[in-house]
Amino acid sequence: MTDTSAPIVFYDNGCFLCRREKSPYQRIERSDPNHWFDMQHSENEMREHDLSWQTAMQRMYVLDSDDRMVSGNDVM
User: Is the pTM higher than 0.90?
Assistant: First the structure.
C-alpha cells in the first residue's frame, strides 16, 4: 500500500549526480519515507501535477504532503 501523505520526489535516474544525491536521503528516511519517481518513467505523474519534462530537468521538484510543488533549495 502506498502512503499518499508522503512527499513525491521527481528525480532523473539517468543522471549520476542525481542518483548520488538521492542515496543519503533514502538512508535517513526510514521513519519518514518519500515516494521517488524517476522522471524517465513518470511522465503521467508529472503531467498530473503540471510538471513538464523541460522544467523538471532544470532542478529537483518535490510535491509535499500539503500538495504544494516545491523546487530547488526549498526542497531541503
Answer: no
